[in-house]
Design brief:
The protein has about 425 residues and is an alpha+beta fold. Helices cover about 60% and strands about 10% of the residues. The chain is elongated. The termini are far apart. Pfam families: GGDEF (PF00990). It comes from Neorhizobium turbinariae. It catalyses: 2 GTP = 3',3'-c-di-GMP + 2 diphosphate. InterPro entries: Diguanylate_Cyclase, GGDEF_dom, Nucleotide_cyclase, Rev_trsase/Diguanyl_cyclase.
C-alpha cells in the first residue's frame, strides 16, 4: 500500500469519527463532542487534500491542507480542555501557527523535505500538548488517560522520526519517502488505538456521571438518601481517633406545606433549593449534606462529641432563619427544626441513628419548632439556643444532660456566626 492510499484511508476514518462525534453531540449537547467532531472533520479534510496532490492546485494540497490538518489537532486539544472542564486557551492554535509561520520562509515553502519536516514537527507538538493534558488532569480515569497519553506520545515520536528522516534523506516526493511510508504504519496503529481508548474514556465519564446521578437529588443537586447511606458507610470505615463519633443531623423545614399552599409548588421548590445551598455552605466540607425526601434534609459527619454536633446543627438552623428567599415579588423567610443522633463510629448502626434522629426531630417539632433536639440514649433534650435566651425552659420532662448544659455556656458567649467558623 502506497502512502497516498494510506492518507485517503486515514481521511475516511477521521471523517467517520467526526460524524459519530457529531451524532453524540446532537444527542447529549456536550460541547467537547462538537469540538472533537470539528477537529476530526478538519483533520480528515486536510489529509484528503494532501492525498489529492497533483489533482488540485499546490496551494490547496500543501499550504491550505496542512493548515487545516493542524487546526484539527488544535480542535482535539480544545475538546480535551472542555472535557476536563477547563477554559479553552490560546495555545490550541500553536500547531497551526507553527506551520503558518514556516510557510513565510521561502526555503521551507519551496522544499518538499522541509515542508514534510515542518508539518510533522507541528503535529508532534500538538500530540505532546494532548499527552501533557491527559497526564496533568488524571481524575477518576487515571489508568485510561495514562495509556492514551502513551499512545499519543508514540504518535509524536513517529512524527519526529518522519521529520528527521525526511530532512536527512532530503526526499523530494511521497513516492521516494520510503522510510516515512514505513513510519506511517505504526502511526496509524497508534491513531486507531488512541481512538479506542478515547472511546473508553468517554464511556468511563458516562459511567461516572450515572453513578453521581444515582446518588444525587435531581431538584437540589445535593446527595439523595442513597448517597447519604453511602457516606455513612464511608465515614464508618474511616479511622479518625480525634473524631470518634458519627453524628446524624436531620432537618425539616417548618410549615413547608403552607408555603406550597400559599405560593405554589414552584416557590416551594425554590425554598428547597435555597436550603440545600445554605446547608452545604454552612457545613464547609465538615460533613455530607443531602435530601432525605420531601422537605427533610440530613447531614452525616464525624464529630468529637455531642457539643460539636449540636453546635453544627444550631449553626445551620440559625443560618436558615436569617436568610431570605426571593420568589418573584415575595420575600420568604423559613425556619427548620433539627433532630440529632450520635453513635460511636465503630459500632454505629444506621437504622438506629435514623430512628433516634427522627424521635429527636419529632420532639423539636412538638416543642414549638425552630429548634434542635438531641437524642442521648432514651433521653431527648432540647438544645439551648442563643436566639431564645431568657425564654422559659422547655417542658420539664425533657432532661438536660451535662453536655447540653455546656452548650448553654457556649451559647452565652455570643451569637453563632451565619456559617461555621
Amino acid at each position: 500500500m502506497d502512502i497516498l492510499t494510506g492518507l485517503m484511508i486515514w481521511a475516511a476514518e477521521a471523517i467517520t469519527l467526526a460524524v459519530l462525534l457529531w451524532s453524540r453531540w446532537f444527542a447529549e449537547r456536550k460541547n467537547y463532542c462538537l469540538t472533537w467532531s470539528c477537529g476530526f472533520a478538519l483533520h480528515g479534510l486536510g489529509v484528503a487534500l494532501v492525498a489529492a496532490r497533483g489533482h488540485i492546485p499546490d496551494f490547496m494540497s500543501i499550504e491550505l491542507a496542512n493548515a487545516i490538518i493542524l487546526a484539527g489537532v488544535g480542535g482535539w486539544i480544545a475538546g480535551l480542555l472542555q472535557f476536563d472542564g477547563r477554559r479553552v486557551e490560546g495555545y490550541v492554535a500553536v500547531p497551526a501557527l507553527i506551520w503558518i509561520a514556516g510557510m513565510f520562509l521561502t526555503p521551507v515553502r519551496e522544499t518538499f523535505a522541509y515542508r514534510v519536516a515542518l508539518a510533522n514537527m507541528a503535529s508532534a507538538t500538538g500530540y505532546l500538548i494532548i499527552s501533557g493534558l491527559l497526564l496533568k488532569h488524571a481524575g477518576t480515569s487515571r489508568s485510561t488517560r495514562q495509556i492514551l497519553a502513551a499512545l499519543i506520545g508514540a504518535q509524536a515520536v513517529c512524527s519526529f522520526l518522519v521529520a528527521g528522516s525526511t530532512l536527512l534523506a532530503q526526499y523530494t516526493s511521497f513516492q521516494t519517502a520510503h522510510v516515512a511510508g514505513w513510519l506511517f504504519v505504526p502511526t496509524a496503529i497508534c491513531f486507531m488505538a488512541s481512538v479506542m481508548f478515547a472511546g473508553k474514556l468517554l464511556a468511563e465519564r458516562t459511567e461516572q456521571k450515572l453513578k453521581i446521578l444515582a446518588k444525587t437529588d435531581a431538584l437540589t443537586g445535593v446527595l439523595n438518601r442513597r448517597g447519604l447511606i453511602d457516606e455513612f458507610h464511608a465515614l464508618r470505615a474511616h479511622v479518625d481517633p480525634s473524631k470518634p463519633i458519627i453524628a446524624f443531623l436531620q432537618f425539616d423545614l417548618d410549615f413547608f406545606k403552607q408555603i406550597n399552599d400559599k405560593f405554589g409548588h414552584q416557590a416551594g421548590d425554590a425554598v428547597l433549593v435555597a436550603f440545600a445551598e445554605i446547608g452545604q455552605t454552612s457545613l464547609r466540607g465538615r460533613g455530607s449534606f443531602g435530601r432525605m425526601g420531601g422537605e427533610e434534609f440530613a447531614s452525616i459527619l464525624r464529630v468529637k462529641d455531642m457539643v460539636e454536633a449540636a453546635s453544627i446543627a444550631e449553626a445551620v438552623r440559625l443560618t436558615i432563619k436569617r436568610q431570605t428567599v426571593l420568589i418573584g415579588e415575595h420575600e420568604l423567610k423559613g425556619t427548620v427544626s433539627a433532630g440529632i443522633a450520635l453513635a460511636v463510629a465503630e459500632t454505629a448502626n444506621l437504622d438506629l441513628l435514623l430512628s433516634a434522629a427522627d424521635r429527636a426531630l419529632y420532639t423539636a417539632k412538638n416543642c414549638g419548632r425552630d429548634r434542635s433536639a438531641i437524642a442521648d440514649g432514651a433521653d431527648i433534650s432540647i438544645v439551648p439556643s442563643a436566639d431564645r435566651r431568657g425564654e422559659a425552659e422547655e417542658p420539664g420532662d425533657l432532661r438536660v444532660s451535662q453536655q447540653v448544659v455546656a452548650l448553654r455556656r457556649i451559647a452565652a458567649i455570643g451569637q453563632p456566626s451565619a456559617v461555621l467558623p
